[in-house]
Amino acid sequence: MKWIKQVHYQNFSEAKGRKPSAVDGKCSWLFHQGFAPYILTSGWSTPNVKTTEWEFLRRIRIKQGVPDSAILREDKVTNTFENSRFSKHLLHQMEIKSDKETLVCKSYHARRALLTYQIHFNETAFLVKSVTDKTGITKDNWFLDDKKITPVMKELTKVGQNFGPHIPNWVRPLSYRETLATKEKF
């Protein structure tokens, strides 16, 4: 693996005085465990951070012992789709190629993040490391109360809206001959 991608889906309205999140910690931990020589962090300017999200997260990484030279810079993105597309462009410019990489994100954002990255990095296999953030949402409890259901359902809505047009590109209909050959195997 050449890089660890933090797929940031963070509410930066809390950035003033914000402590490192579970996602921040997991990225740095994976780096220190030798998963990859780079962390690709993204983020643009927001009114809640006096600098870009990228610079804010870079400072966290450095405090967590990640060398500045290992933190790749992408500071133009505004959403997950751009995050993937701009990351692909940056890695291409830097001539960093790999067929297996790691995505780190919140547990309820993992499916959409993976689908998004699979669109732009169709030649790459991803290991998804999801973390439980301060909401406490997990696969075992997301349906137990409205405060957990709401963000999960928002993610599912975005999956439907964002990926419906891509499904025909992912699944091609089998020809009649392929269908017969598949039936013969079973």
From TrEMBL:
Domain called DUF218: residue spans: 29-120
Transmembrane segments: none
Coiled coil: none
InterPro entries, A to Z: Cell_Envelope_Assoc, DUF218, Rossmann-like_a/b/a_fold
Protein name in the entry: YdcF family protein
